[in-house]
Amino acid sequence: MASFRDIVGHEQIIRQLQNGIRQKKVSHAYLFCGETGSGKRLMADAFAKTLLCEAGGIEACGTCKSCKQAESGNQPDLRAVVREKASLGVSEIREQVTSDAQIKPYSSAYKVYIIDEADKLTEEAQNALLKTIEEPPEYAVFLLLATKREALLPTVLSRCVTISFYPVETGKIRKFLMEKRKLPDYVAQNAAAFSGGLIGRAILFAESEDFFNLRQDVLTLVKNIDAFSMAEITEQVKKFAAQKEILSDALNMMALWYRDVLLYKATRNVNFLLYSDESEAIMARAEKQSYEKLQGVVDRMEQLKQRLKANVNTEMALELLFLFMKED
Questions:
Q1: pLDDT at 69 (0 to 100)
Q2: Res 70: pLDDT
Q3: Which of 23, 36, 62, 104 is the most buried (most CB within 10 A)?
């Protein structure tokens, strides 16, 4: 289980939570809001572990009985709400939270409830939770984690201290992957860049064979698009369209490659390239196409990412993009 010292970035959030502990002004309910992979659960774990630590400081000691129990998943005063269906219903909240909250802590000053994906609480479940967080036991702390703040009732939001999670600097993620995960520089650099500042996504990319296979598919396309026949373009369209769940990631990779081309064209310096192992292909593309054309490709990729959120014909949209990329 993570401690504050294990978290990459989010220094301001850590300071806010630690100040609350130091000043004994811990709120009864927090909403951690941010994209999937932004570090909400790590922060909730670290906060809960610190609150329950027997040392009583602003950083979990890691050596006391409570910390060891938390790390093994057996801390009796730490509850992670389990969701077994698509939504989190009123019965789960009543059984796992509202009824349990009436029982005093077993061994700690606090009793902490982590409700992951709180934006999947049904309205009935939210109202059941509201009754508890409106008049909580003095020892109870509720940590709600959500990606969509608007999915929660205004009455629930009004009872929570909302903490927003924003993307972490790419350099910090790269350093973490190299130092803590012992990954090679080029792997860490690519995973960090493609993560969009989300540490969870960066770790997933860095340790996923699928990520590197996707990267290779993208490079095959962007480097050889000029030589592709119409039949080969159709084949590429079908390949990428079949990977709908990661198509947005593929488009990000393509856009970053073209941004490297633009960067080299403007600076003539390969040291700034994200795709540092593809410098020759990037230099060749920079010589062949104009700034306007290259920027046009990037713009169309960004437009396509937005259109994919709507009900568009994916294959047709990709075909138009690839044909535009192929044009001189």
A1: 92
A2: 92
A3: 62
Give mean pLDDT in consecutive 10-residue pieces for the chain, a chain of 328 residues. Answer: 87 94 93 91 94 92 92 90 75 84 89 91 89 89 92 93 91 88 81 84 81 88 92 93 85 90 91 84 91 92 85 89 87
Residue 105 is encoded by which pair of tokens?
């802590």
Q: Are 18 and 153 members of one domain?
A: yes
Closest C-alpha to 89, from 66, 115, 68:
115
CA distance 32 to 325: 41
Greatest CA span in the chain, whole angstroms?
A: 71
Burial class of 235 by CB neighbour count within 10 A (0 to 12, 13 to 18, 19+): exposed
Query: Does residue 151 share a domain with residue 225?
Result: no
Query: Can you tell me the distance from the alpha carbon of 95 to that of 81, in angstroms, rounded to the nearest whole number?
Result: 10
CATH of the domain at 249: 1.20.272.10
Domain residue limits at 24: 4-164
- Strands 111-115 and 78-80 turn out to be parallel
- Transcribe 237-258 into DSSP letters: HHHHHT-GGGHHHHHHHHHHHH
| Angle in degrees, CA 304, 171, 303, rounded to 5 | 10
Q: How many structural domains is the chain composed of?
A: 2
Which are the contacts of 289, defined by CB distance < 8 A and separation ≥ 6?
261, 328
Task: Give me the pLDDT at residue 131, please.
Answer: 87
